[in-house]
């Protein structure tokens, strides 16, 4: 009997506690903080970005096949240029010496053709995402091995220009070859570049531009040839990049311009530093493109020590800061439009931005459209002029 009474008593107590908790004021309950603390616009925007900017430059977005399936309306309405985010890189295209995988890149190129868009070819030569066989058996500085690698490079570039030269009007011929390390200009073998390791010099950069120009001429194309990199508004890296560009120009390399990747944040780099960069690269007789634009909401990351900010809530205040930042950037781009070929956002919307996963897993909100493809405050500032 005592056991039964105890059980009943415990049940009553549990019920009382449960009811008491349910009747507590809302502010005393623990709730997860929302990722986004502002309401969506509920529209993709009524003003087309590329039509608004048609007198200044083309407007692009970096995409994957996912975007073609899920963001087609947004892409067709707002952009007249596409960049293939990953699927035109050598490691994705050339699985084995004579086996090309075209499915994903063809899907994006065909969407661009159907919608009368142009494309940026990204990227012919890069030190990452290489097929495993490309450098196998090639030793450092061996003349025969260098010629073998040059042959492989030439074949790949010719294949790409042949297949996509009708829709691609500019190529990122070489991507991210400049070192971030003090005291040296080029990314070498210690920094993961097998191109530099085999050549034992930066000569591979020169030959990439030569072969891209040769392919243009063979297939009757006129695509412009760019060097593309990040942190190009950083004074130290800008100085190194200018040294490399002067070297290419002095060697007679057929280079047309430089791509500023523009992975920036709410306050860095300054517009003055960006303007200085545009001026200095243009003074070499080169065109400029803003090749990979996004605006991170994280401003206190420590890249030197790999220390990152905690997840932030996308509040009305953060949205306003981002909108102001985009406004000032596009004012700067319009002012320099005679020198800027195109502006490409690195992604279609916040949903699939690479910054949600890099440098670590945390939500970022770096683009003009939210995860539902709806226009953000930043979009309205960009079209309001």
Proportion in β-strands: 15-25%
Number of discrete helical segments: 13
Tell me the structural class.
alpha/beta
Poorly predicted residue ranges: 1-31
Q: Which word captures the global form?
A: globular
Would you list the SSEs in sequence order as H and E?
A: HHEHHEHEEHEEHEHHEHEEHEHEH
Labels describing this entry:
385 residues, alpha/beta, TIM Barrel, 8-stranded parallel barrel, two-stranded antiparallel sheet, 13 helices, 12 strands, disordered N terminus
Please describe the topology of this protein.
Blueprint: H1 2-22, H2 49-52, E1 58-63, H3 65-70, H4 72-78, E2 81-84, H5 90-93, E3 94-96, E4 99-100, H6 103-114, E5 118-121, E6 125-126, H7 143-164, E7 168-175, H8 194-199, H9 203-218, E8 224-229, H10 235-250, E9 257-260, E10 263-265, H11 271-282, E11 287-296, H12 316-335, E12 340-345, H13 377-383
Parallel strand pairs: 1-2, 1-12, 2-5, 5-7, 6-7, 7-8, 8-9, 9-11, 10-11, 11-12
Antiparallel strand pairs: 3-4
Helix pairs in contact: 7-9, 12-13
Please give a structural write-up.
With 385 residues, the chain is an alpha/beta fold. It has a single domain (36-383), classed as Glycosidases (TIM Barrel), CATH 3.20.20. It is 40% helix and 15% strand. It contains 13 helices and 12 strands. Helix 12 (316-335) links the parallel strand 11 and strand 12 (340-345). Helix 7 (143-164) packs parallel to helix 9 (203-218). The longest helix has 22 residues, at 143-164. The N and C termini lie far apart (82 Å). The model is unreliable at 1-31 (pLDDT under 50).
């Amino acid at each position: 009997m005592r056991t039964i009474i105890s059980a009943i008593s415990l049940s009553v107590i549990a019920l009382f506690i449960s009811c008491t908790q349910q009747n507590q004021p809302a502010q005393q309950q623990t709730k997860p903080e929302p990722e986004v603390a502002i309401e969506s616009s509920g529209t993709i925007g009524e003003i087309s970005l590329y039509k608004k900017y048609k007198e200044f430059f083309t407007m692009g977005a970096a995409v994957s096949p996912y975007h073609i399936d899920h963001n087609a309306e947004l892409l067709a309405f707002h952009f007249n240029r596409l960049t293939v985010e990953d699927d035109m890189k050598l490691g994705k295209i050339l699985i084995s010496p004579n086996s090309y995988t075209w499915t994903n890149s063809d899907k994006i190129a065909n969407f661009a053709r159907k919608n009368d868009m142009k494309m940026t070819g990204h990227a012919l030569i890069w030190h990452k995402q290489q097929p495993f066989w490309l450098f196998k058996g090639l030793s450092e500085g061996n003349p025969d091995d260098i010629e073998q690698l040059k042959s492989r490079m030439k074949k790949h570039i010719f294949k790409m220009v042949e297949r996509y030269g009708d829709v691609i009007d500019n190529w990122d011929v070489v991507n991210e070859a400049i070192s971030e390390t003090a005291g040296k200009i080029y990314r070498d073998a210690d920094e993961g570049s097998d191109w530099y390791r085999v050549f034992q010099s930066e000569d591979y950069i020169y030959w990439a531009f030569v072969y891209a120009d040769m392919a243009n001429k063979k297939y009757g194309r006129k695509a412009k040839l760019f060097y593309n990199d990040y942190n190009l508004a950083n004074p130290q890296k800008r100085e190194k990049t200018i040294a490399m560009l002067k070297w290419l120009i002095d060697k007679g390399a057929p280079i047309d311009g430089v791509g500023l990747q523009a992975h920036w944040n709410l306050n860095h780099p300054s517009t003055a530093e960006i303007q200085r960069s545009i001026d200095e690269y243009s003074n070499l007789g080169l065109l400029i493109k803003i090749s990979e634009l996004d605006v991170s909401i994280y401003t206190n990351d420590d890249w030197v020590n790999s220390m990152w900010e905690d997840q932030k809530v996308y509040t009305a205040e953060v949205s306003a800061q981002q909108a102001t930042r985009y406004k000032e950037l596009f004012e700067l781009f319009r002012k320099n439009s005679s020198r800027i070929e195109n502006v490409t956002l690195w992604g279609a919307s916040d949903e699939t931005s690479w910054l949600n996963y890099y440098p670590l897993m945390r939500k970022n909100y770096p683009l003009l459209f939210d995860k539902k493809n709806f226009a953000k405050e930043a979009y309205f500032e960009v079209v309001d002029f």
